[in-house]
Amino acid sequence: MPKITYVQPSGSSETFEIPIGNSVMQGAVNNNVSGVPAECGGAAACATCLVYVAPEWVSRLPARQLLEESMLDNDDPKYAQLRLSCQVKVTEELDGLVVEVTAL
Q1: What is the Cα–Cα distance from 32 to 49, expressed in whole angstroms?
Q2: Which of 28, 33, 54, 87 lies 20 to 30 Å from 12, alpha-carbon distance?
Q3: Name one Pfam family in it (predicted).
């Protein structure tokens, strides 16, 4: 299973094996990662699963779809790294992905 690392704003991190096909958000929720309440359950309707993708991973992820794009703040200085974790599906290619939980 691919391993995803979730980094907290404090700098602490945890790495979990996440099943292929799950979203990065589901991995966070299933492993009780603090800071990812995922209030809408993955419907891309609340933005409570925002994460910053490590810079070296940005180009390796699928492009944002229109729904996700509409939920993001394009004034964020780290906008290129900003993703809704519910919209990022785990694949073998994402083994080693690092995301930073945003401070809501």
Answers
A1: 13
A2: 87
A3: Fer2
Assess contact for 99 and 52: CB atoms under 8 A: yes
At 7, which helix (H) or strand (E)? strand 3-7
pLDDT digits (tens, 9 = 90+) for 77-103: 999 999 999 999 999 999 999 999 997
For the chain, what is the radius of gyration of the CA atoms?
12
Q: What is the largest CA-CA distance in the chain?
A: 35
Hunting for tokens 């603090």 — which residue is that?
34
23 CB neighbour count, 10 Å cutoff: 19
Q: What is the C-alpha to C-alpha distance for residues 19 and 12, in angstroms, rounded to an integer? A: 23
| Pairing status of strand 13-17 against strand 3-7 | antiparallel
Whether 12 and 20 have beta carbons less than 8 Å apart is answered as: no
Q: How does strand 98-101 pair with strand 3-7? A: parallel
Structure tokens at 56: 């070296």
Closest CA to 101 of 1, 2, 3, 13: 13
